[in-house]
Design a protein that fits this description.
This protein has about 170 residues and is α/β, with parallel strands linked by helices. It contains seven helices and eight strands.
Length: about 170
């Protein structure tokens, strides 16, 4: 079973038989699994394409269950033969309205669906810097006409590290 986000873990972890082998994309997802009492046998990291290839070699001819959201790039699934991939809808990203505070310096985006939800309601305020959790999220921002600095890893600590490193002396990723 392959978890590609902490949200997938939170919504599907209690349905896992004890004999299931577990894989995670990113340290944040792995931490969420461990928090739920599960130990991942594989933890993939950036870039996702490399992690997908490594996981594909590890799986061999086995079948893999992916708890997924409707919106997603499915990079890891695409690295496996279609007959080895089983997807189960585990959660959905909801678009909720909110007001932006007027004094923003940075906006951090954590998924392509997070980007879409934001732009369904808002524009990026002038002068605000953007951080993306990964290249897929950065690409979603580029399709909206914006560039972002990309966190060097998954999870909130990677985002925080990237935010703390923002400044005029740094080149955008």
């Amino acid at each position: 079973m392959f978890f590609n986000s902490p949200s997938a873990v939170r919504h599907a972890w209690n349905r896992i038989p004890s004999t299931t082998k577990i894989a995670a994309l990113g340290e944040g997802t792995a931490r969420e699994l461990i928090k739920q009492g599960l130990t991942p046998q594989f933890i993939g990291s950036h870039p996702v394409e490399k992690a997908a290839a490594q996981f594909g070699q590890l799986v061999g001819e086995g079948k893999v269950l992916f708890p997924v959201t409707r919106i997603g790039k499915r990079t890891v699934q695409k690295a496996l033969p279609a007959d080895q991939v089983i997807e189960v809808g585990a959660y959905e990203t909801l678009n909720r309205s909110c007001e932006l505070p007027g004094d923003l310096d940075v906006i951090a985006f954590t998924s392509p669906s997070n980007v879409q939800s934001f732009f369904d309601q808002h524009e990026i305020p002038k002068g605000v810097q953007l951080v993306a959790i990964g290249e897929t999220t950065a690409e979603a921002l580029r399709t909206k006409g914006y560039s972002a600095r990309v966190a060097k890893g998954y999870g909130m600590l990677a985002i925080l590290d990237r935010i703390m490193g923002l400044g005029p002396e740094k080149d955008p990723a």
